[in-house]
Amino acid sequence: MTSFRAPGRPPRSAGLDAHSALLRAGGLVFALGGASRGSVRAVAAVAGLSPAALYARFGSRAGLLDAVLAECGPGVVIGACDRLHGPGDLPAFVAAVWEAWARPLPRAAFALYLHRTGALPDRVRGCADLEPGLRGPSEAALRVLTRRVARWPGLPAPPAEVAWVIMEGLLRLRAAPLSAVEGTLQSQTHARAVQAWVTGGERPC
Q1: pLDDT tens sequence across 169-179
Q2: Cα separation of 194 and 129, whole Å?
Q3: Sign of the Cα pseudo-torsion (198, 78, 38, 177, in order)
Q4: Which ranges carry the HTH tetR-type domain (predicted)?
Q5: What is the pLDDT of residues 102-144, one digit of tens each?
Q6: ∠ CA 26-35-117 to the nearest 5 degrees?
Q7: Taking the alpha carbons of 114, 117, 119, 122 in that order, is the dihedral positive or negative?
Q8: Which residues of the chain register pLDDT less than 50?
Q9: CA–CA separation, 91 vs 187, rounded Å?
Q10: Cα–Cα distance between 173 and 76 in angstroms, integer?
């Protein structure tokens, strides 16, 4: 059966395409200008749409940032924590985070952001180096991860430090220009290295 629509009315898929285009544009603009500085007008221009289209779908600039972070930000870690009950679950945890971060939007937005700012600390310093737009969600994700890690017996370091080692390795993977296959292999290596450390081995480099 053939479906019809009124003349001049966009196809049903147009709304979904605009949503995706605004998410991608938001990720790119936030990466280039910073999560606290990208403007609605800039995002709309990159997406090839009007600012009104952004407001209609996300309500505000803050709503768009929340949507971008939900797709590829620290909230991914919070979701992945559901499968993290002990060191034995580390590979599954890392795989869940990597799978989410390996998609085009997070690769374009936050890998570029990390390259631009050099926001990865060399030592355990939490999320102090991240700009305000990302610091709060990152700290929330780390708190959740720290609480899960704190349940494990015989940790080689304080729970917050162990949680950051897990997270830092994934951030480094996300910031590197890797293919999906390379990223998967390195994420597995990282998971095994942390797993070995928390069960009596050497600390990962």
Answers
A1: 887 777 676 77
A2: 23
A3: positive
A4: 16-76
A5: 777 777 666 555 555 555 544 445 566 666 667 777 788 889 9
A6: 115
A7: positive
A8: 1-13, 121-124
A9: 8
A10: 15
Round to whole Å and give the CA distance between 38 and 28: 9
Asked if residue 141 lies in contact with residue 167, where contact means CB atoms within 8 angstroms, the answer is yes
- CA distances (Å), origin 147, targets 6, 9, 81, 158, 159: 54, 51, 10, 11, 8
CB 66 within 8 A of CB 139: no
* φ, ψ dihedrals at 118, nearest 5°: 60, 40
* Token pair listed for 45: 């221009």
Helix (H, G, I), strand (E, B) or coil at 82: helix
Domain ranges across the chain: 13-67, 73-198
State which amino acid sits at residue 145.
L
CATH class entry, domain 13-67? mainly alpha
Q: Are 204 and 161 in contact (CB under 8 A)?
A: no
Question: Which of these, 201, 183, 144, lies nearest to 167 by C-alpha position?
Answer: 144
Helix, strand, coil % in the chain, rounded to nearest 5: 70, 0, 30
Angle at CA 92, nearest 5°, toward 161 and 197?
35
